[in-house]
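Design request, tokens follow.
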């Protein structure tokens, strides 16, 4: 089966899940907490059920890793990563910044990815070796060459809150860039790097389903995604640095300097 066939199925699944999210967004949210600050809504669960059901119907032998536990383990070389609602906290508070993210890996190599924003109806897609697209129009990372004139983004996963680790990185990059944004959806942040809205994104503690599709988007749009060490990023690694390539080494230098010798917060 061709990669484009997998991608088309992922697009259909994302559209179905996005319609569910929009319908739920206009209703009173039913929320429960998975941890002290980590929450899940009824919309997460309905969206995941729709995506997983479609994947199982078409690819019953494929493995599925899904955020809310609806996946399945198999010995197939194909593994789907499903985030049915990336930006759950935004969604729960009525802030319209969230997405569906679906990525497909074959033998540890990402081959297809979709990030869909149902509010704006922006469908970001990528297939290995075939480029990245936004609503079927080719996209590329930005051409800005200096961190000082770059707009960058980050996030703060719930599990990181008490450690304050990223607060220091946030401060350092705020001082050295044109600005830092925190929108609350790693999938959309990575898609924004891919289409040139941001020059870079970094974050700690993300799960495989948060980044699988977005990292492929960035790479296929001409960017790069690594760990701070420069080692290629794999979904689920402890930290991610995704950029337009041009400011990657500068971002690395700042990140590694701060990790080695963090300055005290003011």
């Amino acid at each position: 089966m061709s990669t484009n066939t997998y991608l088309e199925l992922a697009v259909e699944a994302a559209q179905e899940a996005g319609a569910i999210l929009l319908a739920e967004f206009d209703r009173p949210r039913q929320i429960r907490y998975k941890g002290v600050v980590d929450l899940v809504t009824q919309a997460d669960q309905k969206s995941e059920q729709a995506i997983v059901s479609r994947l199982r119907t078409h690819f019953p032998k494929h493995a599925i890793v899904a955020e809310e536990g609806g996946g399945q383990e198999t010995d197939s070389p194909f593994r789907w990563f499903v985030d049915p609602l990336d930006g759950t906290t935004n969604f729960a508070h009525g802030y319209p910044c969230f997405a569906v993210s679906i990525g497909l890996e074959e033998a540890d190599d990402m081959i297809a990815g979709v990030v869909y924003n149902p509010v704006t109806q922006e469908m970001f897609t990528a297939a290995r070796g075939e480029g990245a697209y936004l609503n079927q129009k080719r996209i590329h990372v930005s051409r800005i060459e200096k961190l000082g004139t770059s707009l960058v983004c980050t996030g703060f996963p719930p599990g990181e809150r008490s450690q304050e680790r990223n607060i220091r990185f946030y401060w350092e990059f705020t001082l050295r860039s044109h600005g830092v944004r925190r929108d609350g959806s790693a999938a959309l942040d990575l898609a924004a790097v891919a289409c040139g809205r941001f020059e870079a994104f970094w974050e700690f503690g993300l799960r495989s389903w948060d980044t699988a599709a977005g990292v492929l988007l960035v790479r296929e749009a001409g960017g790069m995604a690594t760990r701070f060490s420069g080692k290629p990023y794999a979904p689920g690694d402890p930290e991610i640095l995704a950029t337009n390539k041009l400011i990657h080494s500068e971002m690395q230098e700042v990140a590694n300097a701060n990790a080695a010798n963090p300055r005290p917060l003011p």
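Comment from the thread starter after seeing the answer: thanks! The domain at 147-260 is CATH 3.40.190.80 (D-Maltodextrin-Binding Protein; domain 2).
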